[in-house]
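> example.struct
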């Protein structure tokens, strides 16, 4: 049985850990509120941007834009969005497991990786997969300059023919207790089928190609920004839940150790009383 001193030391250690996990839970909750607000504000804009692009693409007969170009897929770029840190439950492991599954289902040497987040970078740099680009630290913030540069780099890889399609792998935020790992096609942008073409009669001024040269880059930027915002909200929600569980586990452990401490103290007191009684009986 552990000594009373050891039990007290363990209680102090668990109490210190509890303070840390509680603080991390509160920080994650505060960051989640901001991230959730940004996601909910950006979703209508992203949806409307996609609907507008699809509608205009369906109405523009003979449209030619390099980001709509369908070609034989010889190389795929998989953009993996992970967290910079751990302590967020199964968030990172789910992302990395989905990425490994996707790679294993593709022909050998057909996948290139774009890595966002330190966990993805540290995981894949030890494996023999070609890495097109990597961003080790985002700080849980979708900085607009970073997103613009990222969108430009990805579209440049596609337009140069280095990759023939681009897919985004991220975690979609559903609620505080729910999120889903998604793999979405990013490039080439899919035109609506014949049955989905817009019946609206659009007049393009100055011309369709001029309008799409402005609209398509904005769509790409919005698509990447939305993926990052969804990923950050999912990360903070899972970290808040993980730290909340850790805090509750610490409370339970402190309660158990407190019972052990009381038992050890009672045993110590009983032993001292028995020693006193034994000594008194010996003096008689």
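> example.seq
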């Amino acid at each position: 049985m552990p000594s009373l001193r050891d039990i007290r030391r363990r209680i102090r250690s668990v109490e210190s850990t509890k303070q840390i996990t509680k603080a991390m839970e509160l920080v994650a909750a505060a960051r989640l509120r901001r991230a959730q607000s940004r996601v909910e504000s950006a979703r209508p804009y992203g949806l409307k941007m996609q609907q507008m692009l699809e509608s205009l693409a369906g109405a523009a007969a003979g449209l030619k834009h390099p980001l709509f170009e369908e070609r034989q897929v010889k190389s795929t770029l998989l953009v993996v969005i992970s967290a910079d840190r751990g302590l967020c439950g199964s968030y990172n492991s789910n992302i990395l497991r989905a990425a490994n599954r996707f790679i294993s289902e593709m022909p050998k040497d057909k996948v290139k990786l774009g890595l966002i987040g330190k966990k993805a970078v540290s995981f894949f740099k030890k494996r023999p997969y070609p890495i097109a680009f990597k961003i080790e630290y985002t700080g849980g913030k979708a900085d607009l300059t970073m997103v613009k540069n990222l969108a430009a780099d990805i579209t440049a890889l596609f337009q140069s023919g280095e990759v023939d399609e681009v897919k985004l792998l991220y975690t979609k935020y559903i609620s505080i207790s729910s999120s889903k790992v998604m793999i979405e096609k990013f490039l080439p942008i899919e035109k609506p089928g014949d049955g989905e073409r817009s019946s609206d009669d659009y007049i393009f001024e100055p011309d369709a190609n001029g309008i799409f040269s402005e609209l398509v880059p904005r769509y790409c930027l919005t698509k990447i920004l939305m993926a990052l915002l969804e990923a950050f909200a999912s990360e903070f929600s899972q970290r808040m839940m993980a730290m909340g569980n850790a805090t509750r586990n610490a409370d339970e452990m402190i309660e158990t150790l407190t019972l052990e401490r009381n038992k050890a103290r009672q045993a110590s007191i009983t032993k001292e009383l028995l020693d006193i009684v034994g000594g008194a009986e010996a003096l008689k």
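> remarks
The radius of gyration is 28 Å.
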